[in-house]
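DATA SHEET
Item: assembly model
Revision: 1
Owner: S.N.
Input lines:
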Amino acid sequence: MAELEARRTSGGKLDMQAEPMVLNIGPSHPATHATLRFVAELDGETILKLVPEFGYLHRGFEKESENATWTQVFSYTDRLNYVSPLMNNVGYALAVEKLCGIEVTERCKYIRVLVSEFSRIIDHMVCVGTNMVDLGALTNFWYFWKPREEVYLKLIEPLTGTRLTTAYGRIGGAQWDLPEGWVETARGVIKNSILPMIKDVNALLTKNRIFIDRTMGVGPITPKEAVARGFTGPCLRAAGVPFDLRKDQPYLVYDRFDFDIPIGEKGDTCDRYMVRMEEMRQSVRIIEQALDHLPGGPVNVDDPRFVLPDKTLVYGNIEALMNHFKFIMEGVQVPAGEVYSATEAANGELGYYIVSKGGGGPYKIKVRPPCFPLFQGIPHLVEGQMIADLIAVLGSVNIIAGELDR
Amino acid sequence: MAVERPQPGSPGYALTTLESLVAWGRKYSLYPFTFATACCGIEVMGGFGTHYDLSRFGAEVVRFSPRQADVLLVAGTINYKMAPVLKRIYEQMLEPKWVVAMGACAASGGFYNNYTVLQGIDKILPVDVYIPGCPPNPEGMIDAVVQIQKMLETGAPRAAERWPIKA
Amino acid sequence: MTEGIKSVVLAKLGERFGDAIVATHSDFGDDTAVVRREQIVEICTFLRDDPALRFDMAMDLTGVDYLGEEPRFEVVYHLYSLEKKHRVRIKARVPEDDPTIDSVIPVWVGMDWYEREAYDMYGIVFRGHPNLKRILMYESFVGHPLRKDYPKAKRQPTIGPEE
């Protein structure tokens, strides 16, 4: 360890007049989730310098959204962080509602909290599952995929109609209300699927000697460095900084719930894993409280400027028909201005900066992806360590390329 | 079918030409190379999971090296930065190989019609099976594998034999 | 300048940098200050270090293209303070014929890639950036795609038949 430090601080000078080897960990690689690329300068197995490259999934979200109406952008936001799409919808809806100056109904707020927390749980399951696959522990992947399928088939599909790309949120509410029996099914899924699997994976990993050797001390970061680099989310909390938007700048109804924020100590891979596992349990707490206090009432706000009129009125009343027509053809009319709205997504702060010049579509939407500063900080986490550590760190930082590249 | 059985369940004996035997062996042991870039990749993972089990059809061994794979399963949007990489992976695979375009983005660019997205991988590769959907259900992916198995069984020509398509 | 401004952040900013602040507003609950681009590094250093403001986290940097207005581009910074839990947005206009502005990497090291993305998408050049190259698009791409005069479907294929 001491000679590694010496080599790192002496500018990577190698002995015996050797040259560093340049290795391309290319875009089509199983551990890089198939869209990230690293060019690593190696001395043996030690990484001296790491240059990441991305953009292999750049799909032009901003350019497409400039030519769409406000409601059509919901479909594009699904595909940003595609393992927890409902959270992106909620974040975008909150941003546009801040610009319009409307506030949704109580029931809609609770529903948004419920879907966000379920999305957070499934996102963490993907992260831990694929991270462990990269380290060679395949069982956790299969174990975590079972509750994911339960959430998809029993909760998300009856609610929104599709499994993954939901486009469930609308400006001023949601697409439709919860179906009958959803609340009981949700409780059943938590009790029978999610909690037992978290317990099983915990039993397999947390006290496992191999896991601890592979992840403890790998990719540490100090709180000061993490803040300077713009880290947010579980990676920042693992470094020891208690920053969570649900507590610091509460939105929706998070201030009514009782939950804790897990904080790590050293910011290494093991801490990130522990923070994610604990966050899943805290999300279950929030969901149970929300299910207990779910209010009745309408889901959509009662404002004809933003919500489609009821179908019976559309067929009978001429004003409702014209209202419906204008909405579909021209889009919701949002006032001019600019707004930045941030929510706590599974990976960190997901921010939407929206510039509007009035009219039916946005002028510009910029998404502040939580993975962007995390991916930028990976060279800092990994330089001086070995390639196998790079794979462990990359999995634990949870880079979702759809969000990173937009 | 290559193997004859006098009664169901009893041991059978091979009764046919060598090609049928080889086809029978090939179709139940396809090795997919999942080139999963975007959201369809999550549904691919779901297809390999325990609920929609792809290993029932023999295609469970996922190989991350193109030299060892048979089926190139392109799941997700391919943009112009990634297209040369995809073409190179395809060229590195050994014959016979099949290509499956999973999802709307791989089939035709999806709803991204802009400066950066390749409008369908069939602009650069011969595609055997297209799976519609955004993202398709894992059952769609299973259907694609079954279609390839049918192609193998009937001896239908692969798309690579008709490539490049001259207008 | 500082009379009638209810926000602590904007008031302190106006009092220290008087004429470098072109305009301020707090529409929709977001404190915003439009500043002159020449003093951006000083302003950002003040925002980071002043004990009442303490904006230690730079959340986002982006460019906006206001085609038809002069100056055409605008560089927008979003900042957050972990200690004081407040946010501010700083905007600086940059003209089309000289789209340069100083890089704020000396203030927050995490702004590196955000500036590269603004360069890639809009063509705004950040003076003092150690590695100003394209980040999302491929090297052989010509033009800056998010500018309003770049047509959405204008493709520059790297491989395959032309469209």
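QC remark: The mean pLDDT of chain B is 83.
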